[in-house]
Structure formats: C-alpha cells, structure tokens
Amino acid sequence: xxxxxxxxxxxxxxxxxxxxxxxxxxxxxxxxxxxxxxxxxxxxxxxxxxxxxxxxxxxxxxxxxxxxxxxxxxxxxxxxxxxxxxxxxxxxxxxxxxxxxxxxxxxxxxxxxxx
Length: 115
Known about the structure:
Layout: E1 4-11, H1 18-35, H2 38-46, E2 51-56, H3 59-71, E3 76-80, E4 92-101, H4 102-109
C-alpha cells in the first residue's frame, strides 16, 4: 500500500521564535498543497495528512533540498519572509516538500533530523 507525507524543512541558523517557525511552516505546507496534484492531495488527506518537520542548518542546505525535490518532480514550496515581524524581508525560512509518496519524499529528506 502506498503511503503519503509532506516534510517541512526549517532553517536553524535563523533561530526563529517558535510561533514564527510555526507560521512559516504553515505557509510552506499550504502553498505546497495548493501546487500539488489533486489526486495526491486527496490520497494524503484520506490518510490523515502526515507532516514531518525537520531541521536544516542554513539557507544553502535549504536550497539544496528544495532543488532535489524539484529535480525529482515533487511539488515543493520555498518560503521567503515578507519581513513584517522578526526577520528582514527576503529571508528564505523554510521549504515544504510534498505531499507525495512517502518513499519518494524520504529519498530526499530521510536523513534529516526532526525539529
């Protein structure tokens, strides 16, 4: 049986407050879902919408995983902050990868540590 998931990557070097990190993760999750194939989204929703939040050390690593997902054909979202609260505008904060088949997502993010 195929299972589905979404993985959200958050930069650790920014030391975002918990609320800010949660908001950025939510932005990434929603944007990635809106870009995704409706069949995948439906299957993911029926399974409970699994989301895993992991950490990356900096912008370079964030972009690396985002590019890997794009190269693999997995819908993803890179969030750039508007700068209205705790960080400057234009800072890349997080990435959501998927929802997609768990095996495909894990091939990219499976070695990352949980937040």
